[in-house]
Each structure stands twice: as C-alpha cells, then as structure tokens.
C-alpha cells in the first residue's frame, strides 16, 4: 500500500465541523495550562456564528519532521506550520496556525510563497522575471547563516530573534511594565544571477507576520548613461543601471478555516479637514487595489468572533512600496494588492508556469465572485546603486506586514 | 548544479514495467529528493524521492520513445498542492515536447498509481531544468562569436581551458518576448532562455542581450 493515513493525533489538533482548526486550552504544554482570563472566556454564541471553542476530533498531523515547525515563543505565543522547498516558488509555508498566549489556536494561512521577483531596469531593458526554478537555486546555509537556529535539510533556517520592545508602559510610583518581543523566523536564500535573495517570514509573539525579501550578492554590473544610473567606481565614467525589484507574494488566507472569509478595504476620507471618516469597502468579486495613505485591507471571517464578539481578522498593510507601474504589457505591475478566488493553477504573478490558468495576476482578476479569497501583495523597491553596494552588496529589504485584528479580545501578552 | 540519476522503482498497477531503466531527473528537487528515509508522508510533506521516482515512471510511460530520442524532456515533478483535490497524494509531472512546442502536465495519483489528468498547452513555459540549462550553455558555446567570448572570459577568470558547459555555473530564466521585432519574437511559442553564466572567479558574464532558443536550437541577440 503506497499511501496510508497517518494515525490520528488524538491529543492535539482538532477540527470543528471540518472548517475551524482549534486546539483545546491546556492540551499543548505549559503555555496552555494557565486558566483563561476573563478576556479569553468562551465565546458567547452570536446568531449564525460558528462555535470556535468546542473540541471534537483530531486531524492527522499535516506534516512530519523535518518539515514541521512548532515553536512556542517566550511569552507563550505558539506558531505551527509546515515548509516545503517547491521547484518554482522555492520556500513555501503551509498550514500556518497561531495560538496566542492562553488563547485558542486559529488557522491563518493555508499557504504562502513568493509569486514573482520582477526586475525592470530604468533604461528600459533588460526586464527579468527572477522566479524561475527557485527550488533549484536554494543556497546551502552554513551554521553561521542560521544564528541560534536550526537548519532544515541545509536550505531552510528556523530560528528566533529579538524584535525589541513589545511594549513599555510607565506606572506612577512603580516600575514600568515592559517586555521584549521575539520573532520566530523562517528563511531560505536563493542565488539568481548576480543577486542572492533572502526570502524570510517572521512570526512575532504578538501574532504579526512580516514577509520580506532581502536582496544581496552583487550588483549586476550593467552600465548605462548618467540619466539612468549612478556612478560606481572611480570618477564618473561608469554608471550602474538603476532598477526596481517588484516582489509579489501569494497568500492563501484560510482564516479559521476556508469558509466565510471576506476581504475588506479601509479608507479614511477627508484631506485638509479636521475629521477623518472611516470608509469600508467589501470586495464581493475579484479586485485590484492600489495603496493609498492610511489605506489597509483585512481578511475577516464572517462567522468566527473573539470573546468581545468582534470578527476575527488579519490586516494587511502595504505602505512601503515604491509602487512601480510598468507599460501596458506589464499590467501585473499596476496594482499593489490583488484579490482573486482560489485556483490552484494561479501560482505566479507573471510568467505563470501552470496551464489551465492565465499568465499573470492582473488577468486572474476577471469578475469571479469571491468565495475563497487569495491575496497577492506587490512591493516594489527602486534600487539606485551607491558606492557602498560593491561588493558584496549590502542587503536591501522590502516587505509588508500582516497583523492580527481582533483575533484576541485584548493584548495577549 | 549537477544531475541526479534516479533508478526507477518497479511501477505499480497500470504502469509499464521499467525495471532496470534509468532516467535523468533534474537534480535539485529541493527537499523532495532529500527525503530518503522510507516512511508514510503526511499530507503537506514534500514528495519523497521514492514518490518522485514513481511519479516519473507513471507520467513518462506514454512518452518513453520520445524521451529517449530527446524530443520530450521531463522538466520536473512536484507535489500537487491543490486544496480542491480529493485528499490523496498527487504529483504533477511537467514534460516539454520540443517537437510540437507543447507543455504536457500529467497529474499522477500516487495512491492509485495512474495519471488522473493530462493538460497539453502551447505558450506556457515552466522554468528550465538543469538539463535544459546545460543544453542552452552548449548552444552558447557552439556560437562562433559568443562561444569564443565565453571561453576567453573563462580562461581570464582563472579557469584555464574550458572543457565543457558543465564547468560553468549556470542559471536559466524563461525569456518571454515583449515587443521585440527580431527573431526572438518566436519565443512566444518557442522555449527560450536567458542564461546567467558564472565564471570561476565568482563573476557573471553580461548575457542580458542573449537569448537561447531551445526549440530552434539557435541564439538570438536582442536589439536594444
């Protein structure tokens, strides 16, 4: 028999109605043993809402060692996920589950991976799509490349890292209340031509996720005329060509399971006025969105609530992009966030390698009603070389933030 | 990057027996090839090397003659991650037919041991395999002007006399034409690569205007 079901892990994960991944408090070690505070009391039933706390049966473990990552951070927050080095996308993370301290586990993402690194040069050419077979381009990591962590099959680093102050609050006549935060970090490095790309996901102990890519290695050495570059080396004879890295991530959110996920966009109207009125736009069909000052999005589950009876959601901010807009035949560069309905063959934002689907993310958006939204986030970084970039080139980073919004009823510190 | 010899396991029901046959499979399957310890994989685990070999055998069964002749190339095998699929382990085998310039994707149900879906398309180009990168480098070296340029640069970079393409560090990306007027326009249908070539001193050649047309077995120079 080639395929056998793994025995059910009766003591840990559960499925509620096959849709909500929840974990019983106290079932996963000391971090869960403390009694729930009032803020984490069982959910009061909202009409039509799914019960998020009941415990029924356990699913099979989604992945085995060494592909399993299960880390409880010092403040008690726990992240569970699987990784895979895929041929095209490189490092892919699947079945991402977050458990706040003293809280219940909640599924966040079914999968996430890089979806393109588009590199157009300011002089017009060349224009690269750097995701080829990233899985073939993974760089073996040395122990020093994975400080305080563990390497998985030599290409993936799983480690923890300080993230500075989680909070600091002064209290009159007493010591301040403060804590240092920690990230679980998962990353791999890929060599694509001159560049080495560091693809990294940081999972914070406050529930935030920070996907980012660092570009290092070497400058391409492409030279150009002064209007399209910056002089590198002695004098002003050789101008290194300026270029942009337009990096796309694909994020298949399954918030508390696949069902009932909705994407909302938030704006705050008013300019030159004293007031800012909140404006919510719900995407019912596939959409393209551009970033604006103060604009953000969230993926919200319509039927799962925290103990304050607020809908559980994950917020996406993409305000740090250089917002490159290419010519008509690169229409995939003309939005910062795309929302599409799930299709397995929609994998890359451009030069999609799968038949049965369109070639690029702008064409995935074709009016379908959203039932299982997938988000595509596009972050651009315009690189104008400087003398310090040679050589090796210092890492320049680009990325965005995903933060829990009402996953817990209060700071789960 | 090298290539890996994979001894095909005896295929299961519905698959031609290929005992003793040896196929070239693209080398780095990432973690897929590294899972050498036999065990029952969990749903999200990468394909084990045994699963890759089994999927390769099943997906190649109908194309063996063309593969032996070099007309059809197995690009790679990867785990099918479709969450709409029934819960069972599946693999997608990507094959390219240079004779007709068509991509063939065969989805293999590893439990049942057979192909459950085949898609044939033109104009969709998955990334090159390591074998295709080597073929592209051989075409580059066979080019009168560029071949000499590569050999001279290789020697200048401390590599001495270049024996074969395998001595070069190679990385290929699919080239898709966008408004080109020259012969590279054919790359809309042909399978074409841009090739990065790394020299022994760690530097890279400027190959940004060179396109290797694997379908036509020609080199195109971009005019810009």
UniProtKB/TrEMBL annotation, chain A:
Top-level taxon of origin: Bacteria
Listed Pfam families: Cu_amine_oxid
Keyword Oxidoreductase among UniProt keywords: yes
Protein name: Amine oxidase
PTM: Topaquinone (TPQ) is generated by copper-dependent autoxidation of a specific tyrosyl residue.
Cofactor note: Contains 1 topaquinone per subunit.
Cofactor dependence: Cu cation
Signal peptide: 1-27
EC number assigned by the record: 1.4.3.-
Family from the record: Belongs to the copper/topaquinone oxidase family.
InterPro entries with a match to the protein in the record: Cu_amine_oxidase, Cu_amine_oxidase_C, Cu_amine_oxidase_C_sf
The keyword Metal-binding appears for this protein: yes
Enzyme class: oxidoreductase
Keywords: Copper, Metal-binding, Oxidoreductase, Signal, TPQ
Domain Copper amine oxidase catalytic stretches: 77-412
From TrEMBL, chain B:
SUPFAM superfamilies given in the database record: Amine oxidase N-terminal region
The name this protein goes by in its record: Tat pathway signal sequence domain protein
């Amino acid at each position: 028999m080639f395929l056998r079901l793994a025995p059910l892990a009766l003591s840990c994960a559960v499925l509620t109605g096959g849709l909500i991944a929840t974990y019983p408090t106290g079932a996963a070690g000391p971090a869960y043993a403390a009694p729930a505070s009032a803020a984490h009391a069982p959910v009061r039933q909202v009409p039509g809402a799914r019960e998020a706390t009941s415990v029924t049966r356990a699913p099979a473990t989604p992945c085995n060692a060494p592909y399993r990552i299960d880390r409880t951070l010092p403040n008690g927050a726990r992240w569970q996920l699987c990784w895979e080095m895929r041929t095209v996308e490189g490092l892919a993370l699947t079945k991402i589950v977050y458990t706040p301290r003293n809280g219940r586990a909640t599924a966040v993402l079914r999968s996430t991976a890089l979806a393109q690194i588009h590199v157009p040069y300011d002089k017009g050419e060349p224009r690269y799509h750097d995701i080829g077979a990233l899985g073939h381009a993974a760089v073996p990591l040395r122990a020093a490349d994975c400080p305080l962590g563990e390497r998985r099959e030599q290409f993936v680093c799983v480690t923890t890292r300080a993230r500075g102050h989680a909070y600091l609050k002064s209290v009159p006549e007493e010591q301040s209340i403060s804590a240092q935060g920690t990230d679980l970090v998962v990353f791999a490095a890929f060599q694509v031509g001159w560049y080495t790309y560091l693809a990294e996901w940081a999972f914070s102990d406050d529930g935030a996720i920070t996907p980012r890519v660092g570009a290092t290695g070497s400058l391409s050495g492409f030279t150009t005329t002064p209007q399209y570059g910056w002089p590198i080396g002695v004098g002003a004879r050789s101008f290194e060509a300026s270029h942009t890295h337009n990096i796309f991530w694909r994020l298949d959110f399954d918030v508390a399971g696949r069902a009932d996920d909705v994407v909302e966009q938030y704006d705050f109207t008013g300019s030159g006025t004293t007031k800012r009125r909140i404006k919510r736009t719900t995407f019912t069909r596939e959409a393209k969105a551009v970033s604006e000052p103060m604009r953000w999005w969230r993926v919200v589950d319509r039927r799962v609530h925290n103990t304050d009876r607020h809908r559980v959601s994950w917020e996406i901010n993409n305000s740090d992009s250089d917002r490159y807009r290419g010519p008509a035949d690169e229409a995939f560069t003309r939005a910062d966030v795309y929302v599409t309905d799930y299709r397995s063959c929609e994998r890359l934002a451009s030069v999609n390698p799968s038949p049965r689907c369109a070639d690029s993310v702008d064409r995935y958006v074709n009016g379908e009603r959203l039932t299982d939204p997938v988000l595509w986030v596009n972050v651009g970084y315009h690189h104008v070389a400087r003398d310090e970039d040679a050589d090796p080139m210092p890492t320049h980073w680009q990325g965005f933030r995903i933060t829990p919004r009402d996953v817990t009823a209060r700071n789960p510190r | 990057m090298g290539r890996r010899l994979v001894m095909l396991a005896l295929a299961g029901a519905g698959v031609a027996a290929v005992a003793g046959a040896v196929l070239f499979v693209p080398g780095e399957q990432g973690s897929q090839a590294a899972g050498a310890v036999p065990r029952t994989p969990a749903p999200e685990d990468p394909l084990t090397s045994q699963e890759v070999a089994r999927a390769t055998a099943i997906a190649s069964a109908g194309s063996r003659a063309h593969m032996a002749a070099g007309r059809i190339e197995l690009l790679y095998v990867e785990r099918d991650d479709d969450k709409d699929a029934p819960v069972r382990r599946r693999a997608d085998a990507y094959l390219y037919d240079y004779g007709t310039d068509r991509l063939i994707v065969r989805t293999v149900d590893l439990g049942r041991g057979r192909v459950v879906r085949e898609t044939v398309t033109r104009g969709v180009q998955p990334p090159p395999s390591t074998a295709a990168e080597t073929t592209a480098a051989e075409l580059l070296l066979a080019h009168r002007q560029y071949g000499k340029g590569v050999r001279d640069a290789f020697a200048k970079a401390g590599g001495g006399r270049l024996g074969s393409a395998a001595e070069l560090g190679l990385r290929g990306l699919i080239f898709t034409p966008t408004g080109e007027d020259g012969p590279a326009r054919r790359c809309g249908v042909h399978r074409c690569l841009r090739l990065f070539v790394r020299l022994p001193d760690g530097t890279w050649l400027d190959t940004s205007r060179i396109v290797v047309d694997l379908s036509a077995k020609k080199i195109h120079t971009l005019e810009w």
